[in-house]
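Consider what follows.

. . .
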Amino acid sequence: MLRTLKRLLFPVLNALGPLLIILAAAQLLPIAIAYRDGENVLSEFFTSAAISLFVGLLFLFSTKRFKRELEPRDGFLLVTLSWFTAAVFGSIPLVLLLPEVPYYRLFFEAVSCLTTTGATALTNLADLPLSLNYWRCLLSWLGGMGIIVLAVAILPLLGVGGAQLFKVENSNLFKDDRLTPRIADTAKALYGIYILASAACVTAYHWAGMNWDDAVMFMFTTMSLSGITPYDQSIGYFNSPAIEMVAVAFIVFSGFNFSLHFTAWRQRSISAYFTDIEARSWLFVLLIGISIVFGVLTFNHVYPTWEITLRHAVFNVASLFSTTGYTTENYELWPSSLGFLLLIGSLFASCSGSTGGGVKMIRMLIFVKQAILCLHTLLRPRDFLPLRLGKHTISNNLAANVSAFFALHVSVVLVCTLLIMFSGVNLTEAFSTVLACIANTGPGLGSVGPAGNYASCNPMHLWVGSFCMFVGRLELFTVFVIFTRSFWRS
């Protein structure tokens, strides 16, 4: 057992070193902000960066002789440990700057930022040091395309293969649809698009009325579909239709599979968005959701004019369905069905290969197609119809994997809901917490809804929420496969 552990763990620790070095380097941004504004927090950020750098170098050089090409098992272990380690080390600035806040809340905050969930366990956000708010938002931006996708463009320079990492991290089910022959080049292409779109986003926010600091921080959490903000009122702090429309545009952009953006850029055509069934479904579900919310709000005369109604319907549907979690209105004051509609939509609407969370649209499409095919087979058992989705024929293995994923997803939701209820939380808040966290959406219902946050939640509530965010972002199988007996066999 120790021999297997050594053979698996040491090469993974060697590959984990550069990720911690990247995390240390990322803290130069909040350090620069603190220095510019004269904030008395430089020593805390330097200490945090030094700890991450030291441990990263220790992992890198102490395990150098164990470095080798990664195997599939290494990929699962490295992805899981990378996200967990990044959350632990990413929480260090929070621990040093907010010593009065219990660690379970700070760890929840770091996990929420990194997994782009957007749920916060802190209050009076505008009173925090600006550099700390920058750090919270920057963690979301790094997590948006995945720490592994960032590192996979760098690891080959260190002699560590990246194919297994990218295969595990990227949620695109059709993994043979590669953009470039080399996986590192694919990662670089995706991050290039991410950075260019981020530059456009920050410029658009500034033009819409934000100052540069707010524009940068909201860009970080818009492009990553995180929803973390430096204000308790979320993006509703600005009460600006122009800012909300900029947010919607880049939310919809980030909800697409990023490989489609690359294809559209390479072909100099937007046809890729209309020929891809998942992209069409993403837009269709958005339009259906907006139509339903607009219709119900109009029928119940919630707002005085149709323009205001449409504004809030468009923004909140786009934000929740994409798992961003920005809010402009307390949707719990709307007819009760709409709150659940927004929460359910967040579970599946965004595309695979996007920065969004949830089970992804592609899995939902396969699951629905599979259900329809099963019903057809019951009526006509002699017919043999292949399971097709767009140009793809779905293999039995892939269909079985999707079914298993949904079964595991439901099981995790039920178990985690019960665990939170055991701590004294009512069913609505417990269930909505689990759904909001496992889909990486953020706001739920009740005290954790759009008008509240997670600051008053008990330790069990937040530890379970952290677990749900973690496994939700890594799409369940990546984490749970590590706990199988066959994973550790020679």
Summary: The beta strands are 388-389, 392-393. The chain has 22 helices and two strands. Residues 396-422 form the longest helix (27 residues). The two ends are 9 Å apart (CA to CA).
